[in-house]
From TrEMBL:
Catalytic activity from the UniProt record: Typically cleaves a -Gly-|-Phe- bond to release an N-terminal, basic peptide of 5-8 residues from type IV prepilin, and then N-methylates the new N-terminal amino group, the methyl donor being S-adenosyl-L-methionine
Database matches in InterPro entries: Peptidase_A24A_bac, Prepilin_IV_endopep_pep, Prepilin_pept_A24_N, Prepilin_peptidase/N-MTase
Keyword Nucleotide-binding included in the entry's annotation: no
Protein name, per record: Prepilin leader peptidase/N-methyltransferase
Membrane topology: Multi-pass membrane protein
Regions annotated as coiled coil: none
Function: Plays an essential role in type IV pili and type II pseudopili formation by proteolytically removing the leader sequence from substrate proteins and subsequently monomethylating the alpha-amino group of the newly exposed N-terminal phenylalanine.
One of the Pfam families matching this protein, by short name: Peptidase_A24
Keyword tRNA processing: no
C-alpha cells in the first residue's frame, strides 16, 4: 500500500478528528458572524444618519479579533483551554477564572461536527466527494445554528456555499454542471415564488430571503433532481420540530435548520436518493 492508498483505512478517524477541530472553529463562527452583521448594520446606519460611532463600535471585530475571552470576567481563553471537548471536561464546564458555567453547546457542536464528518468519510471513503462533503457539512452546521439562534442566514456563508457547489460540480463532482446550475436557479425561484404568492394572498412575508439562497446552494451541490426530496424532508423536519418546540400560531420559526438537515441527509444518502429518484422518473413515465 503506497501513496494516498495508505491513508484509506484512516479516512473515518481522521475525518472525525478534523471534525472536532472544525467544530471548535464553527463555535466561533456561530457566535461572531451575527454580531459582525449587526455591528456592520449599526455603523452603516450611523454613518448615513450623521451620527458618531462609539469607540467600542470602531474596534476590530471579526473571526480573529478580538481574542476569545470569558464574557463574564473577560479572562482570555488560553491555548490549553481551547482543545475541543477535552478542555471542557478538564475545566468541568466552567470558566477557569470566575467559574461561570460554559454552555454545553460548545462541546456538542464539536462532537456533532466530528460525527457528521466521520459519516461522510464512511459513506464516500478517501475521495473528492468526501472533501466536498466536509466543506458542505461545516457550512450547513454553521448556518443551522446561526439561523436557530438569530433567524439570520448570512450571505457571507450562503453565497460562498452556492458558488462552491457550482465549482464542485464543474466536472461532475456529484451531478452534472447543467443539473447544478438548474438546481441553483430552481432552488431560489421555487421558494421565492412560494413566498410571493403567500404575501399576495395574506399580505404577510412568510419566509426570509436567506432560505431562498440556502435552497439555491443545496441545488447547486445536489442538482435539480434532488430538490423535491430536500424540500419534502425539510417540511417534515420543520413540522416535527415546530410540534416539539410547541411553536404557536403566528410565531416565527426558523426554517433554515430544517433545510440544512434535509440537504445534508440527501448528500449523505446520495446513492439511495438517486436510485429512488430514478425509479420515480421511470415509474411516472418521465
Amino acid at each position: 500500500m503506497s501513496g494516498w492508498n495508505m491513508w484509506v483505512p484512516f479516512a473515518v478517524p481522521l475525518a472525525a478528528l478534523f471534525g472536532l477541530l472544525v467544530g471548535s472553529f464553527l463555535n466561533v463562527v456561530i457566535y461572531r458572524v451575527p454580531l459582525m452583521m449587526e455591528r456592520e448594520w449599526t455603523l452603516f446606519a450611523k454613518t448615513h444618519l450623521g451620527q458618531t460611532p462609539t469607540a467600542a463600535e470602531l474596534q476590530p471585530f471579526n473571526l480573529i479579533k478580538p481574542d476569545s475571552c470569558c464574557p463574564q470576567c473577560q479572562s482570555p481563553v488560553r491555548a490549553w483551554q481551547n482543545i475541543p471537548v477535552i478542555s471542557y471536561l478538564l475545566l468541568g464546564g466552567k470558566c477557569g477564572s470566575c467559574k461561570m458555567p460554559i454552555s454545553k453547546r460548545y462541546p456538542l457542536v464539536e462532537l456533532l461536527t466530528a460525527a457528521l464528518f466521520a459519516l461522510v468519510a464512511w459513506q464516500y471513503g478517501w475521495s473528492w466527494l468526501t472533501l466536498g462533503g466536509l466543506v458542505l457539512t461545516a457550512m450547513l452546521v454553521a448556518l443551522a445554528f446561526i439561523d436557530a439562534d438569530t433567524q439570520y442566514l448570512p450571505d457571507q456563508i450562503t453565497l460562498p456555499l452556492l458558488w462552491l457547489g457550482l465549482l464542485f460540480n464543474w466536472n461532475g463532482g456529484m451531478v452534472s454542471l447543467q443539473s447544478a446550475v438548474a438546481g441553483a436557479v430552481a432552488g431560489y425561484l421555487s421558494l421565492w415564488l412560494l413566498c410571493w404568492l403567500y404575501k399576495l394572498a395574506t399580505g404577510k412575508i412568510g419566509m426570509g430571503g436567506g432560505d431562498f439562497k440556502l435552497l439555491a446552494a443545496l441545488g447547486a451541490w445536489l442538482g435539480i433532481g434532488a430538490l423535491p426530496v430536500v424540500v419534502f424532508l425539510a417540511a417534515l423536519i420543520g413540522i416535527f420540530a415546530a410540534a416539539a418546540m410547541r411553536v404557536g400560531k403566528g410565531q416565527q420559526f426558523a426554517f433554515g435548520p430544517s433545510l440544512a438537515v434535509a440537504g445534508w441527509l440527501v448528500f449523505a444518502a446520495n446513492q439511495q436518493v438517486a436510485a429512488a429518484i430514478g425509479w420515480w422518473l421511470r415509474a411516472s413515465g418521465f
